[in-house]
Amino acid sequence: ECHSPPHPQLADPSLSPLARVLDARRRLHALLADPAPADFPMALAGIAAQVREACRTNPDVALASVLLRTEGPYSSRHAVNAAIACQITGTALELEPDESIATVSAALTMNIGMFALHDALVARKAPLSDAQQAAVHAHCEVGVARLRELGIADERWLDAVRDHHERSDGSGYPARKHYEEIGRPARLLALADVYCARVAGRDYRPPLQSTQALRWMFLNEGAALDVSLAKVFIKTLGIYPPGTGVRLRNGSLAVVIQRGTSGHQPVVASLTTHNGLRLASPIRRSGDVEAHTIAEVVNLWQMGIAVSMEALWGADAVD
């Protein structure tokens, strides 16, 4: 039996898309940390609604927040990031509203079964202890049990939480299911989970550039992830997702601010001149001039280039 989650009123309608994302992170962290939340289904539905509205209003800003707003606890940030990727890809797939909502809700709660442990694991440099390894392998089923306790009855949502670490080739857990046994919400969530984890990095390894993370899906997990869904996922996020740091052919450093249409360069905004001088304000480039096409992906943070989302996207990125 499936029960769609309630449809709450959105928070302050004046919030920008970026503010909605950051609000969703804060609210999710507080909700998952609460041992006895008053009305979990309604509270979670409100957070999911914030994510959906941010993605509807400006999907480029929502995607850029994954790469550019890396502050705050990892556990809730990662869950919201994955929810953004699921929402935007689900829109491209034209999912029915109930399936889309179930997938986004599952993304927000996929790690509820190890919430207290998650941030500690991310910061850990040594290999996991046997007890920690066991907790990680149990977290999918523990999470489903916890969600049922909290009043969640949507079987697609629960199935996606249980199966988001299953893999198409049978190499996943907890039940080593194969492709045909894994629902589409879980297969989409697996892609979002892997991508968002790779671009976030850990204390023990630097983040992958978004282009590397997307390529890694095919090269390293080609048989394990859903290849047809992965193609839509990559096409939807873009080869250079918004927020990606790049060097243009003329030498200037820039940020991708808008996904290109199929087969076209994305829109970028230059942050420096061709010889490296920082510009007072970003200059938008459409890639229609050879000098303004992308030459390579760069890590702006490592290069000491601070990026203001508000300077790049204006009112949609006021936090």
Q: How does this structure look, described?
A:
It is globular and about 55 Å long. It is 50% helix and 9% strand. The model has no long low-confidence stretch (mean pLDDT 89). The chain has helices at 17-33, 40-57, 59-68, 74-92, 97-109, 115-123, 130-149, 155-163, 184-200, 210-221, 227-237, 309-313; strands at 245-248, 253-258, 267-272, 278-285, 294-297. It has a five-stranded antiparallel beta sheet. With 319 residues, the protein is of the alpha+beta class. It contains twelve helices and five strands.
- The computed structural class is alpha+beta
Strand content: 5-15%
> In one word, what is the shape?
globular
The total strand number stands at 5
Number of helices: 12
- Mind telling me the C-alpha Rg? 19 Å
Helix content: 40-55%
How far do the termini sit from each other?
40 Å
Largest sheet properties: 5 strands, antiparallel
Mean pLDDT: 89
Strand order of the largest sheet: 4-3-2-1-5
The unreliable regions are none
Give me some keywords for this one:
319 residues, alpha+beta, five-stranded antiparallel beta sheet, 5 strands, 50% helix, globular
Please provide a brief summary of the model.
The chain is of the alpha+beta class. Helix content is 50%, strand content 9%.
Question: What are the SSEs and their pairings?
Answer:
Elements: H1 17-33, H2 40-57, H3 59-68, H4 74-92, H5 97-109, H6 115-123, H7 130-149, H8 155-163, H9 184-200, H10 210-221, H11 227-237, E1 245-248, E2 253-258, E3 267-272, E4 278-285, E5 294-297, H12 309-313
Helix pairs in contact: 1-2, 1-4, 2-3, 2-4, 2-5, 3-4, 4-5, 4-9, 4-11, 5-8, 5-9, 7-8, 8-9, 9-10
